[in-house]
Amino acid sequence: MASNLRIGIAGLGTVGAGVVKILQSHGADIARRAGQDIVITAVHARDAKKDRGVDLSQYGWEKDIAALSTRANVDVVVELIGGEDGDAKALVENSLKNKKHVVTANKALLAKHGLALAKLAEDNGVSLNFEASVAGGIPIIKALREGFAGNKIEGIYGILNGTCNYILTEMRETGRDFGDVLKEAQEKGYAEADPTFDVDGIDAAHKLTILSALAFGVKPDFANIDITGIRKITANDIEFAKELGCRIKLLGIARDIGGRIAQSLEPCLVPIDAPMGTVEGVFNAVFVEGDFVDRAMLEGRGAGQGPTASAVVADLIDLARGYYLPAFGLPVSQLKDAQWAGAKDIVSGQYINLTVTDQPGVIADVSAILRNFGISIESMIQRGRDPGQPVSVVITTHECSREAIRAASAKIAALKSVAAPPTVLRIERF
Amino acid sequence: MASNLRIGIAGLGTVGAGVVKILQSHGADIARRAGQDIVITAVHARDAKKDRGVDLSQYGWEKDIAALSTRANVDVVVELIGGEDGDAKALVENSLKNKKHVVTANKALLAKHGLALAKLAEDNGVSLNFEASVAGGIPIIKALREGFAGNKIEGIYGILNGTCNYILTEMRETGRDFGDVLKEAQEKGYAEADPTFDVDGIDAAHKLTILSALAFGVKPDFANIDITGIRKITANDIEFAKELGCRIKLLGIARDIGGRIAQSLEPCLVPIDAPMGTVEGVFNAVFVEGDFVDRAMLEGRGAGQGPTASAVVADLIDLARGYYLPAFGLPVSQLKDAQWAGAKDIVSGQYINLTVTDQPGVIADVSAILRNFGISIESMIQRGRDPGQPVSVVITTHECSREAIRAASAKIAALKSVAAPPTVLRIERF
To answer: Residue B45's pLDDT is what?
Structure first.
């Protein structure tokens, strides 16, 4: 073959080692598909001696990460260090400035600095690819940028964090509480020692930022996502959800509501027999609604060595085939400043879990508040009876705005007979 | 914008009119994404006067279909006529010979002549794109050719015909028989007056031919698909499937079994709670198994104006972006002649529906035959009891080869107490 695409890999953790494995095991097939060989010419990691389960002896070991971005024998820098600042950011910036293509799986970096980096890539005539940053091996970035490019996208939503989906699945299957299941997930290596990024929804919100920019042609804007994690979900909520024929899923939802975009990341109730309800464990799923394609779904493993490395290599093959697109599907100058939807625009059914003193009149008070905000009750369940003691009451409502339910919840929380601020969750019938 | 991609559309049925609608309504957005305008310069259909719900007055009407392939102001010919020979084939061939790119939704043409057409495109330095030929708006061709290109694909399977899936869903929900539901589907326009292509599995097999070539890098070969349609599925089978916790789905399955490829198209039992079991009505779903990505699924509307036109336009946008790939992901010279798996290699659980005379000894005879072929019984259900009369007995087996079950079925059919050849269906636990 006439030429090679020469790559330098920074970061040899799970994903980096996976990329090496794919290129080593499928090199010949990939070259046939890509039209040229993809060869690793340099690698960098903090610890040169660690056994990573792959033979790295044939590659140049680059001690100095900064030097990777200027190496003459590197056409593409693969950034798999992670983190929204520090080494990762410097490496990506310097690589682009030095006219190296960049392939990265770094959603935090893209969510925070995606716009500036896209501009830098454009200015230097190189490509910034990040299929692996969202939903592991699922080719959702490509689907949005290319496969659905004939559509006006109306909504994109999904289960974007495998750790949370695993915890919620486990809570439902075992009846245990959040803290308990989290601890076990940490012991098993499914959750990080510091689980904040996952369980507080930050990681999924990073991914939603990227999807939303691609779907709506707007500047990526992490700051405008309304984020609620899963820490407050109790075994009691999971039980009530079951009774309502639903499951609780941490959903990223971005919608175009009459030209204004709503971005949220929060636990929602979804019907058990809806496509979203059946996505379990560590799987991710992304739904796309377009005006011509109607609704399509992509599902697969959202993390892990093989799937994530598969996405990195797909990006490399695109580059080897000579296919470059603007990072967010449009030249940076054409990405719009989004108009953001307000709490008034975001409408859904609601689940309200109240801990109330079991005494006459409580429900009348709560109902009156809901009525005063124009919110109509769909169902009410009380579990057990224990006069004078706190009991759980769950109310579901017909569609109402987020503004209305928030105002009503505040009033309800202030009632004497209500023991704690109610848990309010969105109901989405996907 | 500096340049235009000029297209000529042949065939202005549902899909053709849809393409016009997308380009008319989203022209400006598409130009921003594609980097140039995509303009319709010529259209052709048999009847120039028919109202198609779109304004065609601004386009050159080309009366002579043959002239479309030589028009100077056409860069891309969009073939939406259909049919594996005749006008469609001539148009695609001539267009490629005249160095026009071709975009088509014609699965029959590709399944039968895909290899020759891919060669013709290659020899003339133009592109042959066909995202719309499989699974409507789902970008499965792109996913195989690009998104999963870092993997060795081990299997691809799915629900590829919306008409059959609709009929099977309807049969289950209403308890009615095949003929009855088909008739209604025809009246509603969900099935053709001549339903052969759909219900006998031909249409889905065309699609599987294309997917299999892309997945395994082999020459498309429709002749090597073992095809069984859904005509013989009865309400009785649907009932038994329910009792077994399964649904019956018409599945296209292509697998790499130790370097040999098995392609089949047949109704199968799948568990109701497996991802494949929940794909209902006119929806299509395609599952891909790759050695690194593990399993991914793409689901969406498999037909209809909007989704199919969305896929055609995605192909046009790729072309406008200057992105051409070999039709089947590899240069034609590198597509392999597949080694085909035999009936011995294809292994699965089996469902056997027997109509037997209700008398002692029948089951002993059947069991003995199965044992003689090394087939082990998993479960047996008899419905009702009516001594001396025919009753249905369903046996499910553990995994055995297609060769074994076929030989055993022939022996079972020859038993005096068995009233008719048994219905044998594959059980797949996707």
So the answer is: 95
Per CATH, the homologous superfamily of domain A140-301 is Dihydrodipicolinate Reductase; domain 2 (3.30.360.10)
- Amino acid identity, position B345: D
Cβ contacts (< 8 Å) between A146 and chain B: which residues? Answer: 139, 142, 314, 317-318
Q: Are A133 and A104 in contact (CB under 8 A)?
A: yes
Q: Which residues of A are less than 8 Å from B283 in CB distance?
A: none
Fold of B347-427: Alpha-Beta Plaits (3.30.70)
End-to-end CA distance of chain A: 49
pLDDT of residue B357: 87
Q: Which CATH number fits domain B4-133: 3.40.50.720, 3.40.1000.70, 3.40.50.9100, 3.20.20.140?
A: 3.40.50.720
Give pLDDT tens digits for A65-101. Answer: 999 999 999 999 999 999 999 999 999 999 999 999 9
User: Any idea what DSSP says for residue A146?
Assistant: I
| DSSP character string of B335-384 | PBPPPBP-TTT-EEEEEEEEEEE--TTHHHHHHHHHHHTT--EEEEEE-S
The C-alpha atoms of residue B253 and residue A407 are separated, in whole angstroms, by 53
Which chain A positions have a beta carbon within 8 Å of B335's beta carbon? none
Tell me the three state secondary structure of residue B429.
Answer: coil
- Whether residue B317 and residue A290 make contact (CB cut-off 8 A), yes or no, is no
Catalytic residues of A: 207
Global model pTM greater than 0.80: yes
Contact call for A298 and B301, based on CB within 8 A: no
Residues of chain B with pLDDT under 70: 1-2
